[in-house]
Amino acid sequence: MDRDHVFTEPSDEQLAAHDAENLQSVLTHLRDNPTDDAECFLEVKVSMSALAKMQLRSIQEKTSLQAVLTESLRRDGLS
Question: What is the secondary structure of 23-67 as a DSSP string?
Fold first, then answer.
């Protein structure tokens, strides 16, 4: 073992850059292989006011809460 080598933890910036690269690779793979793009579950905590607004829109648009959320993600270019 090399005693001169000292392990240093990667910085937050290095970790974020690595995570971003990995996510970009995943998105590229899914774009190139759409059959691999499976649905998944996402558990999210939101404020009661945000939930109430989504539920109200769901009632007004006569659609599901999931459809309201999916449309919001689509409008922001995330879906």
Answer: HHHHHHHHHH-GGG-----------HHHHHHHHHHHHHTTS-HHH
Report CA-CA distances (Å) from 52 to 42, 47, 48, 74. Answer: 19, 9, 6, 20
Nearest-angstrom CA–CA distance, 24 and 41: 20
DSSP E strands: which ranges in 1-79? none
Write down the pTM of the prediction: 0.57
pLDDT (0 to 100) of residue 29: 95
Tokens in use for 14? 């290095």
- Spell out where 13-77 has E strands: none
Q: Is 79 in a helix, a strand, or coil?
A: coil
Residue range 6-64, pLDDT digits in tens? 778 888 888 888 899 999 999 999 999 999 999 888 898 999 999 999 999 999 999 99
